[in-house]
Write a structure and sequence with these properties.
Elements: H1 28-35, E1 42-43, H2 56-70, H3 84-98, E2 107-111, H4 112-124, E3 130-135, H5 139-146, E4 151-158, E5 161-162, H6 164-171, E6 178-181, H7 195-205, E7 211-215, H8 231-234, E8 239-244, E9 255-259, H9 262-276, H10 281-293, H11 296-321, E10 327-328, E11 336-340, H12 347-356, E12 359-360, E13 362-363, E14 377-381, H13 387-399
Parallel strand pairs: 1-12, 3-4, 3-6, 6-7, 7-8
Antiparallel strand pairs: 2-9, 4-5, 8-9, 10-11, 11-14, 13-14
The structure holds pyridoxal-5'-phosphate (PLP).
């Protein structure tokens, strides 16, 4: 058993940690990335957007313009809701690209959508509340919500979205407070919810006392298929919608947003103020300047084409090198796909063998709230490796399959 660390004066650091820290997992992926950073390792473990496609020159020009035109105002404290022109831009984007009416007053700019998840946890979750999440689920949400001590209710994912039979059972037992899902190109599985499953879920929770947190970081990174309607237009009163510029522009600005109706928004703004007063105003203005002076749609097209080619290469490599009894999802967008090994094969053991052959991925375990149970799944990221590297990496994994 691990001994509590005690200083020379007999000071026990652990005794000062709040209850809420006890069950909050460290980011397993960060731990893995530490192992898998070396140059010679082919890594499908990360979840980073491809830096080669960052619009460097356009961002440099925008930074110079913002400082030149807005001067000291660009560096002053600002309001908690976020830079109004940027919120208007997002509102207009929804109107133009998704046929959705979202008022700028219903948009709060956050420090990445990750902060949005934390603020939702702060405002909504009491200890012990039942929160429905996808299985496998987004690690960052599991971590963010864990701090508020919920009881997670995992609902397995099928290739068309949540398993409706299990969902029905959970909805009918013990009043879940919130449901969190990623309808497009889910992290980690790469699956998207079909139109039917979306409608079925909306029908089941409409009017019930349950909030739906709809996370959409990958929705614009589509390389095939048609956009299906989001949950927010179907359930505007009950949905909190999260968005981000991390995958469409750059993640380092840490710029995302939450869409919510007034009563919820009032509380989210209080939580935001308490957390950091406001999101970095310089990057908000910089991003806005970049967006209005560049063709963002063709930039997103470029990203989607690149990831689409890389995803295609990964699927081809899996088809070429992996045995037929290994299953994998076929994403239509986003950055990940999900592999299921034959029952009984451990993806953690495979990870260790793969690392010896200088290739890394994320074993499935951390994506399940019951981390010990499922051991034959893994996540592969395709956004950061070129096609030849993808073939070589998949070939190496295939070589150490049990
Ligand atoms: C599903 C999901 N939500 C939220 C985030 C956080 O994104 P950000 O905080 O950069 O907006 C990520 C990042 O990978 C993600 O995959």
């Amino acid at each position: 058993m691990q001994q509590p660390s005690t200083t020379e004066q007999g000071f026990q650091v652990e005794s000062f940690f709040a209850e809420r820290m006890k069950n909050t997992p460290r980011s397993f992926i960060r731990e893995i990335l530490k192992v898998a950073v070396s140059e010679e390792i082919i890594s499908f473990a990360g979840g980073l957007p491809n830096p080669e496609i960052f619009p460097m020159e356009a961002i440099r020009e925008a930074a110079v313009r913002v400082l030149g035109q807005r001067g000291r105002e660009a560096l002053q404290y600002s309001n908690s809701e976020g830079y109004l022109p940027l919120r208007r831009y997002i509102s207009h984007w929804y109107h133009e690209n998704a046929g959705m009416e979202v008022s700028p007053e219903d948009i709060l700019i956050t420090s990445g959508s990750q902060q949005g998840l934390d603020l939702i946890g702060k405002v909504v979750i009491n200890p012990g509340d039942r929160i429905i999440i996808e299985e496998p689920g987004y690690l960052g949400a599991i971590q963010a919500f864990s701090l508020y001590q919920p009881q997670f209710i995992p609902v397995p994912l099928k290739t068309t979205g949540m398993d409706l039979e299990v969902l029905d059972r959970e909805l009918n037992s013990g009043n879940p407070r919130m449901m969190y899902l990623i309808p497009d190109f889910q992290n980690p599985s790469g699956i998207s919810y079909s139109r039917e499953v979306r409608e079925q879920i909306a029908e089941r929770i409409r009017g019930k006392n349950i909030l739906l947190a709809e996370d959409t970081p990958y929705s614009d990174i589509r390389f095939s298929g048609e956009r299906a309607p989001g949950f927010y237009p179907m359930l505007p009163e009950q949905t909190i919608l999260l968005g981000t510029f991390s995958k469409t522009v750059v993640p380092g600005f840490r710029l995302g947003w939450i869409v919510a109706r007034k009563e919820l928004m009032d509380k989210l703004i209080i939580a935001k103020q308490a957390a950091d007063l406001h999101t970095n105003i310089f990057t908000q203005q910089l991003l806005y300047d970049y967006l209005i002076n560049n063709d963002i749609k063709s930039h997103i097209h470029l990203i989607s084409n690149l990831y689409g080619r890389q995803c295609h290469a990964m699927l081809e490599a899996l088809k070429t090198y992996f045995p037929k009894d290994v299953q994998y999802t076929v994403p239509k967008g986003g950055m990940f796909l999900w592999v299921t090994l034959p029952e009984g094969q451990s993806s953690l053991e495979l990870f260790n063998r793969a690392l010896e052959h200088k290739v890394a991925f994320v074993p499935g375990n951390p994506f399940y709230v019951d981390g010990s149970k499922h051991r034959s799944t893994l996540r592969l990221n395709f956004s950061c490796s070129d096609e030849a590297t993808i073939f070589e990496g998949v070939r190496r994994i295939a070589g150490v399959l049990g």
